[in-house]
Every structure is written in C-alpha cells, then in structure tokens.
Amino acid sequence: MGLLIKSKKNIHEKVKGMKIIVCVKHVPDTAANIKVVGDNGFDESVKFVMNPYDEYAVEEAVRTVQQNGGEVVAVSVGKQNAVNTVRSALAVGADRGILVKTDAQFLDSATTALALKAVIEQDGMPDLIFTGKQSVDSEGMQTHYRLAAKMGLPVATDVVAFSMTNGNVVVECEMGGGDREVIEMSRPCVIAATKGLNEPRYPKLPDILKAKKKPLVEMNLDDLGLGTLPESAAVTSLTQVKERGAATMMTGTVKEMVEDLVNRLENDAKVL
Amino acid sequence: MSNIGVLIEMDGQEIKASNYGVLTAACSGGNAVALVFTENGEAIKNDLERFGAGKIVTMSATNPVQKAKLMAAVVKEFNLRALLGLSSARGRDLLARCACILDAPLALDAIQIDLADGMVVKSHFSGKTTAIIQLSGDTLHVGLRPNVIEAVEKPVSAELIPFTAETGDSDGLKILEVKKGGTGTIDLTEAEIIITGGRPMDSAENFKILHACAKVLPGAVGASRAAVDAGFAPHSMQVGQTGKTVSPKLYIGCGLSGSVQHFAGMKTSRVIVGINTDKDAPIFGKCDYGIVGDLFEVVPALTEVLNKNR
C-alpha cells in the first residue's frame, strides 16, 4: 500500500497547475425509502448514489481545473461499494480517486475527518478542498469543519458562488432569509458546496468507460495508523418517521372549502 | 447544577423569538448562561431574564472565526457542560466552529435533547428517520431545530457580564460583505407557518399570490424542488431533501404531488394542508387536511377569508 501511494505522489509531482481534493460520500438515493433494521441499521439493498451536495463540489473542482490546469482527486471514506461513487466522480471529470474502506456506513465525523486528513497529507497538500455542505444520510453537517480544523485551514459552508482573486478564494454563502455572506479565504481552504453553486454535468457513456481506466487507490482505514479513534457522537437507535394517514378532505365550493379549512385550523388544530 | 450555555441569535437589535425555546431546553438541564454578540446587553436583559437566563455574557466580534474563539473561551471560563443554539445557518456555523476548537461533540438539527444523559434526537436520512445520538465528551454542542421546543417563561434576575478574550487573528478568513436577500420575509426555517408552491405555480410572477397569503397568515413562502429547478424561485426558498428542513406548526402545500424527497423536509410540521387539482395526488394520502381544487382559485380565496377574520 505504501508503495502505491508513493507512486501516486510521483504522478502528482508531474502535474502542473492546481491540485484540488474533492471529498465525496456514498449515500442512499434520495428517492429511496429507508427501512430500519435492528436498533441502528437500515436495509442497505437500496440504490446508492453520490451525496447530492458533493455533486456540486465535484463540478466546481472540475471546472476550476479546466480553467487553471491541474488535477482533481476524488476521496471517499466508506464501505467497499463507495468505490462506485468515486468512479462517478471520475466519470464527470475527476482525474484519480482514493477510497478509504471502513465497515460502517455511519462513522463519527471526527474519525472521517482524521481519515481524510491522513490521505490528503499522504497524497500531498492540495490548493483547495471541496466538499458538500452535508450528507443526506447522517446529516452531521460537520465533517468539513472537523477536516479544516484538524488541518488548520479556513472553511466556509453553504457556498453558492466561488471565484479566485490574487491567489485567494472568494465565496458567497447562504445565510438564511435570502442573505448571502461574501467571504475571502487564503489558500488552501475547505469549501463546502450547496445547491446553486453550479449545474452538475451528467456523465456521457464514453466518459463512464474512460473513468474505469483512471487510477483509483483503495486502502483500509486501519492502515492509516490513526491510533485510537474518537467516538464523540454515536447513533444508538434509528426510528422511521411515520407518515400521517389520509387527509380529511374539504367539500363544497371553493369558498365553502376554504372557510371550513380555516375554521378547522383555528378551532380543531389551533394553529391559526 | 451545571452551567448550560445558550448562543443567542439576534435579528438586528432584537432577539429572534425562536431562541426562547432553546433557553427553555437549557433550563431543563441546569443554569442557563446566555452568550450574546451585542454592544448593548441592557437592551435585551429583560427578555432573557423572562426565559431563565441567570447570566448574560455579552461579547463583541464580527468575524465568525473570532466569534467562535470567544465562545470557546466562555465555555472554559464558565465551565459550561453544554452549549446550545439554534440550528439556523448562523447557529450551525458558529456551533461547529466552536466545537472544532474544543474538539467537542456536536449534533445539529436536533429535535429533542436530554442533557442529563447527553442524548439528542435528530433528523437522519433527511427526515425519513430520526436517530438517537449519544454524545460523549466534555462540552456537548447542540443546535436545535427552531420551534421544536416550546418556550416556557421562567423569570430570574440576570447578571450582565461583558466578556473579552485574546482571539488572535481570524486564521485566513475575512467577511467582505453581506448581501441582503431583500425579500424582507421571515426566514423559512424559523417560520411558524409556511405556504409552499410546486411546479403548477408556472412562473416566478405567480408566487405573488403565495406572498399575499403569507402576509396575512403571517408566514413564509417556500418552493418545491420542481419549482426551483424550473426557475420560479431561488434555492434559498426550497423545502425538501436538497433544500431546507422545516418544522412549522402549519404547512400549506399548493400544487405539491407529495414526493418522498419533499416530505423529508417538512413531515415534522404539526399540521399539513394539501391543495391539488388531482384528487389522487399522493399528498392527500399523508397530510391532515386536503382541498381538491385549482390553487389559483383556492389560495386567493384563503387569503380573503383570513383577511376577513383578522
């Protein structure tokens, strides 16, 4: 394994331009219905995809390298099947991939961050690190912060616009209520993307075939020598959120239905 | 009893109302210590005292990195067992930065909290499931989804404590400006009532009927992914799996089919109303009240009835 990583390092040294790391997660498709199994597991036979927010991260990384030259390295920490998400990143323009294999779908965010830091440092410091602003499965919303803190880098989240000026990064972040904060960061830095940053491309068949030939290194979490791993937040139980039953339907003319509805909202449900 | 910190979020010169539920959560586990970034602590003292803040620590900073460093210093100075806040955009950012400085456990978008056992219930799989998370470590950092905990008054008399600490530089991060959204409407995630439009809205212009209704409710306006992707509304208004997760007391969906992804973002609403021309739309199978009708007739009629009742 050590030898393999070393050879990748040599490839990197030949690359001119920017080096961008993009962190991607393999998650259940958003359309999938989640069935809880046991206390804290779920039926993993559903379709898995690249975490939707990570698609914006990959797209921005690929566009940035297309403009400035360099390479995009897609990194994932996940089960063996997460290799498919790394390949998806390669199919839309990432140059090579790294998968850190674990046994669990839910890893402590601090552990994931330590694993990412270790592989990123082994691979050689990048100019930029892109991630999604959160995963749609565990919704921890913190791996990018943990990664930035452990690497001593600035971080911005919910990024909807990205540019570079005078060697620095300028991003716009969604702050709620339609407000946006414009933030300047020194490089390298961690940029957590959200929807609106760009329009991710769809892979074309020839690109999918080409992606199969792009370099992809796999390693085990245990081989990174991270020592005793933190477990600061553990999922002890999962519960399906129940759908409510069929609606009480209003009847009559539009006016009658609306009056009946307002009456029920005021007097029965007491929400008006 | 241990000290529980609450990061108070301001809206201009006023405290956002959704903070009071967070104070109530803090009071359930110990002595509430309010952390506020403000130049004028006196102005907000009465409001915070009413909801149980025995100590009000005021700080001054504008850069999020320096804010987080001050918060971390307060955690140490006042020996806080936990630091709570709103899981809003600002709250999430500052809680995460502070948790990383202290290497402390963090759970965001929590919908229940048990401070004694260090457990939170939070959304998982974008609202399709909830997870019980066991936090372990020194200072639990928890962001609560706005409006999930009802505020209960607990009058105390508070000590006002201006706080400063050496924060060094901002570690390579600088705020250049804040661009105002200019909508002047209530933030979606904090709204108590939301009215949302789907693909049948047919244009950005047509959203004005929802805004008119939202004004009398009063509430905020949301949009489905289909409406956002069609360019009728900005992403900041999107509710659902790749948009905002909301938990209002009343959610009115206009022209929504009722997709799994949309429901993931709003199914914890207390009451859900569906309006759709198709009587077989899936939304009617999983909401509280339904109206089969054209939203362009139903919504203005609703606005009119509400106006009359006010």
Instruction: Indicate the structural class of chain B.
Output: alpha/beta
Give the N-terminus to C-terminus distance of chain A in angstroms. Answer: 63 Å
Biggest interface reads: A-B, 84 and 96 residues
Question: Could you state the order of secondary-structure elements of chain B as H and E?
Answer: EEEHEHEHEHEEEEEEEHEHEHEEH
Which shape of chain A, going by the Cα principal axes?
globular
Number of domains of chain A: 2
CATH topology of the largest domain in chain A: Rossmann fold
Helix content of chain B: 25-40%
Query: Mean pLDDT across all residues of chain A, rounded?
Result: 92
Gyration radius of chain B, in Å: 21 Å
**Lateral arrangement of strands in the main beta sheet of chain A:** 11-10-9-12-8-1-6-7-13
Indicate the mean pLDDT of chain B: 94
Which CATH architecture of the largest domain in chain A is right?
3-Layer(aba) Sandwich
Overall structural class of chain A, as computed from helix and strand content, comes to: alpha/beta
N to C succession of SSEs of chain A: HEEEEEHEHEHEHEEEEHEEEH
How would you write the strand order of the largest sheet of chain B?
9-8-7-10-6-1-4-5-11
Which residue ranges of chain B are poorly predicted, with pLDDT under 50 across at least 5 consecutive positions? none
Rg calculated over all Cα atoms of chain A = 22 Å
Any idea what the CATH superfamily of the largest domain in chain B is called?
A: HUPs
